[in-house]
């Protein structure tokens, strides 16, 4: 946790024109047990959707931490890549959400494909609270405050591609990661993009054919990578 | 597992000039339970240190699988980046070894730094069998056969840098990942390189100063990434 993320409603003005916040949850525990912070220490803070900065701990005990805030920097710029991902198994989903959020992705769309097990769509990892936790871990890691959106598309793949993917790609460069594609993944930012990544085991041929009619197929070389590795590798190449 | 990795001593010639192998361990289990393979199916295989290719399953039961091998392709080219990594906590080490091996790294050097907990050097993850398993998982993922080497350097950081790091960097471009460095991480292969990556929380200033006298400091942008994410991002940019 490189940044303690506060919600706007947790901020209270002080007489002196600065702002304070009081923590009582896992962030308090983190301050005490991981950072072993003391009164007077400075820690990184940010407000959901807003600025980042520093906080001075002005009171700290087992029940609460009181912080005085100086929020004077913008969060890091987002990575303007929408990640459309065939829903992976729950532990992989967590890794991808945390890491892609840390890398700056602000929109995720999780879809069904032939090689996606149906049970994944009823996993706990898709509950709003589980998604929120993974996104928050990614933001805290990267000192970011802008919470990504996550859409879940359990409908049939063909319907997703015809009815939802065009909107996800509108005004953006559509890319589909496909091992063996003739075009290598770009090595520099290409402006707004939508990156489509298939399931472990890949898209089936009919899915590849449909996606190739809508998106540029790109390749990462001859090595077959796990989904979580491929996503980080692709985003790292597209990052500024 | 995109490739079943065989040891050279498991290969037996057949009269017809081809080769066979018999599996009885977790690879048999994988064939039966994950791939749900049947007699006549083809699977990807490779020989440690040698060629990759296809195998036809000619016998399969609960005790053994017999494969007929056609090993006629080279493994994917290695990534000529030596990864010198401050020893991370055991779960992170596993992720880094597996992912960096899948990306083609062939030499790892794990070293001590101020922010490395001493207990990590006595963790089970550094036992030869645990290391071998992580490397094998990475190779099986990427359809590779060339087993990387892993060196562990528990000596003091200063001694490691003075006495071992020069050899690790000899004839190679030395790079140290350091958030905030003025030079961005290269976005293309730069030939043989040694990439030095610090612990979660970073190198302390004295360590940075020492490393900067030996290696070019490079940066991945304003987002602070976890070690496993940073390693994949750096290697992805340096990969062909």
Oligomerization: homodimer
Number of helices of chain A: 6
CATH topology of the largest domain in chain A: Alpha/beta knot
Largest sheet of chain A: 7 strands, parallel
Which runs of chain A of at least 5 residues are low in confidence (pLDDT < 50)?
none
CATH superfamily of the largest domain in chain A, called what? Answer: SPOUT methyltransferase, trefoil knot domain
Pfam families (chains A, B): Methyltrans_RNA, PUA_4
Catalytic activity (chains A, B): uridine(1498) in 16S rRNA + S-adenosyl-L-methionine = N(3)-methyluridine(1498) in 16S rRNA + S-adenosyl-L-homocysteine + H(+)
Subcellular location (chains A, B): Cytoplasm
GO molecular function (chains A, B): methyltransferase activity
What would a concise description of this structure say?
With 240 residues, the first copy, chain A, is α/β, with parallel strands linked by helices. Chain A is built from 6 helices and 13 strands. In chain A, β7, α2 and β8 form a beta-alpha-beta unit.
